[in-house]
Structures are given as C-alpha cells and as structure tokens.
Queue: 2 jobs
Job 1
Amino acid sequence: MPRKKEALTLSVPPETKEQLEAIALRLGIFWGKSPSVSGLLVAIAQHKLEVGEPFTLNSTEVAALQQGIRLLIDSGYVEQARSVSQLLVSRGNLAAPLRQSLLQQVIQPTAAWRIAEEYINDAQPFLVLYRTPKGENLAYTARYAEISFEEKRFYLEIWCEETDDIKNPDYPELIHNRCLRFDRIQSIVKTDGKWRDEGLDYVKVYLHFYSGMVNAYDPRARDISNEVVGDIRQVVRNVSNPFWLMREVSRYWEDCVIVSPDSVRDRFQQKLIALCRQYNLEIRD
C-alpha cells in the first residue's frame, strides 16, 4: 500500500520559484521531465543536501587536500593552490589553527615566488631569510637568481655572498650557489648593489650514455654539447648543483657514467661504495 503523502503549499514570489527550480535542475532532482521543488525540499529534509552550514572534513581528507595544495605549489600551479585553500578556509568547518596553517601554506611560497620573479626580471639584488630543515634561520644576499625545476618541484637558485654556512664544501668552486625551497623562504626584500651578470657558478661535467640511453636521452637546458660518437652519447653540461646530477645519473644505473671532473666522479663513486656496503657487497680494488 503506497505511503500517504501530506500536501504542503508554499507561497513564494515567481522569481523564487524559478530559483528553486534552477537549483533542482542543477542537482538533477526531477518530477518527470521537470525540475521538482518538492523533491528539492525532501532532499534537504533528509540531509542529502547541506544548506547554510559549512561542510566538514575528517583528518584524512584534510591531509589529502593539504598534500594536494603542496603538490600544486611545487608544480608551479600557485593560483590553483590558492583557489583550493580559499575554498577550504571559506567553506570548510575547520578549526582555527588549521585555517591559519592552510593560509600560511599558500601565502608564504606564493608571495616568495612572486617577489623573487619580479626581482629577477628587474635584475634587482635581494636579501633572503631562509629557514633550514633543522629550524635554523639563515640570511643570504642574492646577487643573481633563477627559478629551476628539479624532481617535480620548483626551487629558487641563487648566487649569494655568504659562504660561512657551508663548513666543508665538496665543491669549493660552487660555494656561492644555493638551492632554496620556496616554502622555507621566510621573506625576500631588495637590497643595494649590482646584479651578477655572470649568473650562477658551474662545473663542467662530461657524461657518457650507453645502451638504450643513447637514443632515449632527453637534452637539458644547460647542456653545452650533445653528440653521438660510435655507440656512446657524449654530453657536456654546466652543473650548478651536483646533488641533482647524481640523483639523475643514479636512475640510469650502468647506462650513464660521469667521466669528469674528478671531484664529481669521485663523489659519485663514494656513494656507490656506501651503497654496496649497505647491501654487504665486497668492494675489491
């Protein structure tokens, strides 16, 4: 036996009825082929639709969205990250500390990116206040800078005057270079002095690629030369930070060899020896 329904009469202006029907149409609530206002009211009464109150998120959802915001920022989509953050702050039922954290997560790297880009375009030296992963605050005087992309994240590379923070440099010729994460930059302000037209410092690294990498190698912007000689692809590249080069080479295994300079080759060799020891492999001369 069908359930008895009670009639409910609403007295609303014509424009309000049209607005309610438009909402029902957008939400796919119909009576036959027409949008149903009564169906919309039933959905609200049954809590199938949220009206007025902000939506709530559990801890897992918040963590996922925070990670998504970080990935957007790291990939250079700062405006999209700002949009997601503003949606969460304005519409989400978030505790005050989390609201502040979300705002800071977007505002800080976005502001640093915008200011750094402006100063780079104007060839304007600037001061950077930077917080290290250990929580130490360092100040750098940047005489040159550029924004680079490494392993799915954008970084600010600078040539700075300060060198005391590096006690035992592996590469003395690169001691003025720094590679900074935008989310750890606390502030950027312009300073006096000249812009360094020479750019970053570099070491010239010679690489040999073998086997499948002869054809699969993807040229880099800082490659000086790139040619195939016999069955070897020989690449010469300006390198500002060997850390990233070693991470790249390690992905190619035996298909890539650092030929020179000895400082970079020896450092990579040390890492290979340490890796072998981790796996209890005997190293013989």
Job 2
Amino acid sequence: MGMVLGLTGGIATGKSTVVDLFKKHGFPIVDADVIAREVVEIGTPGLAEIVSEFGSEMLLSDGSLNRKKLGALIFSDDEKRVKLNQLLSPFLRAAILSEIDEKQQQAKLVIVDIPLLYEGGYETFVDQVAVVYIPEELQLDRLMKRDNLTRTEAKQRVDSQLPIEQKRQRANIVFDNQKTVEETKKSVDKWISENIF
C-alpha cells in the first residue's frame, strides 16, 4: 500500500507545475479536476442534478454542460456555489476514493491533486497534505495575467477558496512556488528522496 499525498494550493499558485514534477518521477496522479468533469458528462447523474437545480439553460445545444454559464453564476453567488458543491460532492467523493484505492495498490506514492482539498474535507482520506504556496498578492497577479481577468474577477475566484495562508498553516508540507520552477523542482526532489526512496 503506497503513501497517499494530498496536493492542494490556491488558484494560480502553480499546483499543476508541482503535479507535473511528481508525474515525471512516475508516480500515479488522482486528478480531482478531471474527475469533476467526468461526473457531469452527458448522461451522468451529476449533470441531471445540475439541470434539476439550475435549469436546462445550463446546457449547450448538444446537451453538454455550459461551463462558462455555470461558472459565471456560481462565482457571483455564494449560495449557488455552495449548493452546486453539495449536489456534486457525493459523486466526486465516490470516484476520487475509488481511484485512490486502485492506484495505492500500484505504487509507493500516490498524488491526489485536489484544489479544494480542505474545503471538501479530503484531508481525512490522505496520509499527508502538501500545499503549493505563493502569497495572495502574487496569486492575484498571476491569475489576472493567466486568465485575462480584472482584479475584481480574480479576487472573486481567490475568495471562493479557503485563504492560501490558512492552507499553508494546516499543511504537513509546503512547496514554496514564489521563485523559479527550478527552485520548486529542487524542493520536490528533496522531499521525494527523503520520504519515498
């Protein structure tokens, strides 16, 4: 049974960079974002729940989810965002835990990439939690550049998650991602060599 490392961060903190570093070492990744897309594909109970709650205007003409429309709705309304998370949480949790179980049989270390790890209470299902950290001001700057957002839009998205400082305080491991990718790579490699091999 391999060790299960929950990997989280905030939007635009560089979590995918760290996930890629673990991937290059050959460790299996459980990707919550991929699973989140799968649980709302055409014909899934997850998509049916969204339509039932928010109406068929959340669908595109081919019957698939209109992510842009749903995103605009939930990022501007906290109650609707909470409702959406409640609807999809059981489907997500079942799929994530099933994939962790399967991959744990195959490797010394399984990385569980969950943006909303603390918000969803997933810390109880992993052995340790690593947070990819940058200060909030840098997070806002990177997000505005990356997604071409105004400061207000970027702030809405950052504020929809638990503050990065709180995540950093709760984590077992912090990968500081303020400098170069090379610096981040060194800290990931060091952690792997000290804990896994």
